[in-house]
Write a structure and sequence with these properties.
This protein is of the alpha+beta class. It contains 4 helices and 3 strands, in the order E-H-E-E-H-H-H. Strands 1-3-2 form a 3-stranded antiparallel β-sheet. The longest helix has 14 residues, at 51-64. The relative contact order is 0.19. Mean pLDDT is 75; it is low at 98-117. GO terms for molecular function: metal ion binding. InterPro entries: HMA_dom_sf.
């Protein structure tokens, strides 16, 4: 059976430490093989046999917090990258309104919200 090659540029960056989680999730999908991740380019490359397996892989990436760049995002979609170490770098690149999705609660947030400790 003929195989296809998918080159997916993802919207959210990931570090080399988080690459293993992505790779494990993709290799668990039947008919997905030769998974290679390029964190510095936010690029994921893999081979697939069936188009429906490609769709499963794209859905898996989105569920992990790495939607393809080609996907249009609605501000109501709360897709956070699972790579916590990349969140601060991403805040600068996010469109207006998305910064609230990546706020990590802490003392400053408690003061802002007048939450008693």
């Amino acid at each position: 059976m003929k195989t296809g090659l998918a080159k997916i540029s993802v919207r959210n960056s990931f570090c080399s430490n988080c690459s293993e989680k992505i790779e494990n999730a993709l290799t668990a999908i039947r008919d997905i093989s030769n998974v290679h991740l390029y964190p510095s380019e936010a690029l994921i490359v893999f081979s697939f046999r069936k188009a429906n397996e490609l769709a499963v892989a794209l859905n898996t990436l989105t569920d992990l917090g790495y939607p393809p760049k080609s996907d249009s995002l609605n501000p109501n979609n709360k897709i956070k990258p699972s790579c916590i170490c990349m969140r601060p770098a991403m805040q600068e690149a996010l469109p207006a309104g998305f910064n609230e999705l990546y706020r990590i609660p802490g003392k400053a947030a408690e003061k802002q919200l007048n939450i008693a400790s």
